[in-house]
Automatic annotation (TrEMBL):
Keywords: Carbohydrate metabolism, Glucose metabolism, NADP, Oxidoreductase
Species assigned in the record: Ectopseudomonas khazarica
Name of the featured protein: Glucose-6-phosphate 1-dehydrogenase
InterPro entries per record: G6P_DH, G6P_DH_AS, G6P_DH_C, G6P_DH_NAD-bd
The protein's role, per its UniProt record: Catalyzes the oxidation of glucose 6-phosphate to 6-phosphogluconolactone.
Length: 474
């Protein structure tokens, strides 16, 4: 496994700790080697020391031992090179030597503008043989045209079966449990449709700001950074039909159908069906935080959105008339990622108490699935209150260590299983829906609405649901 961007945050904070855990649990073949690639001038020993510091910080103390690290470090090497320079790929080929039958996984933990060059340089250096695979981090482009250009350049070197477009949300345990919940339990299938579901909410809320990603984020914004990939992937898993088999092509075929069935939002529709916001100064956890436009590497007059809410609709037989409300934002009051399925009320209400009838699938901070029902309060009379049937995954499987999403996805890459990765047409179908929204904002001068850091988002957020008699889940 060759990790381009081997000294970056993703490699040091996520990829190497994930590989360490796989090694510790005996999931890596004895022949697996890891080569980090970056411009910094490290020796093998100095890079191993850097990697050890980060892994110690990321891995639970009970899971990190000197002996295990020593055996893992024996797999780990470093090669200094510039991924933009074709000559350095010749040096890399010489360093690796000829091994046509050996599987080489190229993990591109780099800026997306290097994807095309790296693929081309690998091919020219003879490093993209039939056993080679390539892993691409999101975002794949910043528009439909740019995504097509990247996919075409990668496709000219690697056939589709050897391209792994990673979205770490698909590696989360609860996300995969969503498929188990839907397709392995007869309880839900009859009611998983427009006749019984009022609406769906998908929320990914963060308390953090842009941190050290200002230069990238100010050109991307929340729509490109989160909606186009993470939230649309969650929408697909909620809405897709059952695949004929649980394999890569069958699962991804059904996800593409959902993306292609999304009703377009364009022109003046963006004013009614989207909310765009940007955080101003405020307080989170008792600490003052600055406005977005004062963040490092962000333009002082930036109109980049840090918050987006969208009312999406799927134009097919199962979901016609059911709105899917998507929202994501930075510097919000709480950190949470969850999917809420709101079922319709009973046809005839015998009691005056409020309705529950919600299925909540929480991805973070804790992984849990809870079904909220109405039950009678003890005592005289028929006073009802919401109660939960709760599956806390951490408690249900307390004897097992919780895998990080990257552990699962890296092992899938090594084993050649692309079920949890995005296919080329899937990425392009998502951009085909997102592009008109971005264009609508630009054409109709829809600037981001300000919201104080530590709030739930712009005031206009509530109107998106309230005008239809609905409200966001607390």
């Amino acid at each position: 496994m060759l990790v381009f961007g081997g000294t970056g945050d993703l490699a040091l904070h996520k990829l190497l700790p994930a590989l360490y855990h796989l090694h510790r649990e005996g999931r890596l073949h004895a022949d697996v080697r890891i080569l980090a690639l970056a411009r910094s001038s490290h020796s093998r020993e100095s890079y191993q020391a850097l990697a050890e510091r980060h892994c110690r910080a990321q891995v639970a103390r009970a899971d990190f031992t000197t002996e295990t690290w020593a055996s893992f470090a024996a797999r780990l090497d470093y090669f200094a090179m510039d991924a933009a320079q074709s000559a350095d790929f010749g040096r890399l080929a010489k360093y690796l030597g000829r091994a046509e039958d050996r599987v080489r996984v190229y993990y591109l933990a780099t800026a997306p503008n290097l994807f095309e060059d790296i693929a081309t340089h690998l091919a020219n250096a003879g490093l993209a043989g039939p056993a080679a695979r390539i892993v691409l981090e999101k975002p794949i482009g910043h528009s439909l045209d740019s995504a097509r250009a990247i996919n075409a350049a990668i496709g000219a070197v690697f056939d589709e079966a050897r391209v792994f477009r990673i979205d770490h949300y698909l590696g989360k345990e609860t996300v995969q449990n969503l498929m188990a919940l839907r397709f392995a339990n007869a309880l839900f299938e009859p009611v998983w449709r427009a006749g019984h579901i009022d609406h769906v909410q998908i929320s990914v809320c963060e308390t953090l700001g842009v941190e050290n990603r200002g230069a990238y984020y100010d050109k991307a914004g929340a729509m490109r950074d989160m909606i186009q990939n993470h939230l649309l992937q969650l929408l697909c898993l909620v809405a897709m039909e059952a695949p004929v088999r649980f394999d890569a092509e069958a699962v991804r075929n059904e996800k593409v159908k959902i993306l292609e069935a999304l009703k377009p939002i364009s022109g003046l529709d963006v004013q009614d069906k989207t909310v765009r916001g940007q955080y101003t100064a405020g307080q989170i956890g008792g600490h003052d935080v600055q406005a977005y436009y004062f963040e490092k590497n962000v333009d002082n007059d930036s109109d980049t959105e840090t918050f987006v809410a969208v009312q999406a609709e799927i134009d097919n037989w199962r979901w016609a008339g059911v709105p899917f409300y998507l929202r994501t934002g930075k510097r919000l009051a709480k950190k949470t990622s969850e999917i809420l399925i709101q079922f319709k009320p009973v046809p005839h209400r015998l009691f005056n108490d409020g309705e529950a009838n919600q299925l909540l699938i929480r991805l973070q901070p804790e992984e849990r699935i809870s079904l909220q029902l109405m039950a009678k309060n003890p005592g005289k009379g028929m006073r009802l209150k919401p109660v939960e049937l709760d599956l806390n995954l951490a408690n249900a499987f307390s004897q097992q260590r919780r895998w990080d999403a990257y552990e699962r996805l890296l092992l899938d890459v090594i084993e050649g299983d692309s079920t949890l990765f995005m296919r080329r047409d899937e990425v392009e179908a998502a951009w085909q829906w997102v592009d008109p929204i971005l264009q609508g904002w630009h054409q109709h001068y829809q600037s981001p609405r300000p919201y104080p850091a530590g709030s739930d988002g712009p005031e206009q957020l509530q109107h998106l649901l309230e005008r239809h008699g609905r409200h966001w889940a607390e």
